[in-house]
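Case study B.
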Amino acid sequence: MKERQKATIYDIAQLAGNSASTVSYALNGTWKKRRIKPETVEKIKKIAKENGYRVNLQARNLRNATSGLLGMILPEHDTRFFAELSQAFAQEVRNRESCPAIVLSGRASKAQEESIRSLISYNVDAIVIAAATDPNPLAKICAEAGVPHVFVDHASDQAPSVVTDNAFGAKKLTESILERTRIAGTSGFQDVYFLGGDIGLPSTQDRISGFCEAHDGRLDRPAEDRIIACGYAAEPTTQALKKLHEQLGRLPAALFVNSIICFEGVVRHLATLEEQEISKCVLGCFDYDPFVPLMRFPVLMVRQRADLMIEVAFSKLDDGVGSPSLSMVPPDLLV
Amino acid sequence: MKERQKATIYDIAQLAGNSASTVSYALNGTWKKRRIKPETVEKIKKIAKENGYRVNLQARNLRNATSGLLGMILPEHDTRFFAELSQAFAQEVRNRESCPAIVLSGRASKAQEESIRSLISYNVDAIVIAAATDPNPLAKICAEAGVPHVFVDHASDQAPSVVTDNAFGAKKLTESILERTRIAGTSGFQDVYFLGGDIGLPSTQDRISGFCEAHDGRLDRPAEDRIIACGYAAEPTTQALKKLHEQLGRLPAALFVNSIICFEGVVRHLATLEEQEISKCVLGCFDYDPFVPLMRFPVLMVRQRADLMIEVAFSKLDDGVGSPSLSMVPPDLLV
DNA sequence: CTGAAAGCGCTAACAA
DNA sequence: TTGTTAGCGCTTTCAG
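Model:
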């Protein structure tokens, strides 16, 4: 079983006593329109199967100037949401009888550019670009190569994009948080903090604007005062919360936590406290993880719809338009 | 910018006033051994860059009978461990300047076979097969096509394989659990239950044997009495635990939970109980999720080393041996 | 109904 | 130091 040569259509042709072109037609399904004798087709198929013939897609695709590959790049698989994105992508690609080429290219823009170029070299039929650090240069590369592409999660203004409706989700989450604090009787809408994220990112900006909007008219000082954009890592969030805790001398009435990673940081601080104290703080998180609803305290969560976002992304690719357009997918609020 | 034809080496050759082969040599780095004049190389490179030339890897690889693609199949991205596996794989592939083709093929063996065949059609240089439902048929397909392959997480006895050292990990975890119950003074080693998993799977069997071994000599009835292999889903686990709870009239002294999904099921039941009661039950889980250590009660966890497993898998591919061999990677015990 | 032959873009042996 | 050419495996026109 050593290095058994892969059979080609010529081998099959030889065995069948036909020409390579007949074999090609018989095997790739185009034989009706060539009016090949059904028996010939049967014979050829049988021989092919016996010899373990498999079409060489490199050759076919080179000839056809396609690849049957659909590419996706995303930074990593370090959160549920990213894992769900690639899962949904892979599912959709398989439905289309194509082959997924998923590249985890890290957060560096240069690395992302290289990944895109590499996919292009494989003649991928289209590229889904998720959570790009710097979208526009990537859009340019794809456009110049004439490769259809669509952005997911982080938008480009030069290409079709689909993102979570961050403002909407943040508003809903904030409203829900405020409602809880009202029920808890802490009149805490004066005292709701936004924790985590990067003020330079559109997604964080949109969430902040949703957060502020939900406060509309109910505040005596602008919500912006209570926005702590300490990045997207756990440890700084823990520190930020600890500091806030010390300043206030207690936990705030409520916390809007901007991502699951930040939420990890929050929980690390909460883990040092009495359950009694935690229960006085209404918690909301703009992200989802299946273990969070199982904590001992309630957490309002927003779940981004990876499946829907991928669906919309593919429908944009199918349109074939390629001009900039932004779709927003409203996330779910889990209570 | 519409459909800008991709430039070929012939286009570049024309522009440079050289032949296609000179361009080819100049651009793919093999020019020193062909003693092309450095200035010629420079000129060609410059023209290539100006024209946005990118090598067509389909053509190159067809010619070279390689693909530069490394394939991986795994069921899904529904757990951290799987996500970490594909992450580690992608990382390693990028280090090798290849391109990852990750296919999530679901749990059905037929689908996994199709995915493998599809990767083979692309002439992937090697395949990493993770968590195969039925490994041997997949090994056969790869072997017949002469494609190097290695199994990860679920072993085949017909091919190189690397798995977690389940028996070892289970033994360590169980010992740690027993130690805790001893400290808690419940003399609970009579009362430690193994929950979850599939008795038909080698991995579960190995974990059970590690579980039993850790009890060695300390039991008055065989550990097997307390093994509830209720599958790998959350809901059945919740039901199983609930039933056990009712039978005993209390929680057992300790629980060895066989996977993170099962652990989710366990937590769902625990969520209905008083914290006081939960604290009397020592919990261990053969898996890892970053949120579990943040629960209000301590959980002993085993973390499988996806990174190491992938490293070992690649070293087996590098060996080029291809004969069956089983490597076991000891997991970490987190306390 | 079927065969012969060109060519997708690239590499490498053979010539020069 | 460089050009010419054959051919990777397949599809598809053209010619029977």
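The radius of gyration of chain A is 27 Å. The remaining cases will be described in the next quarterly update.
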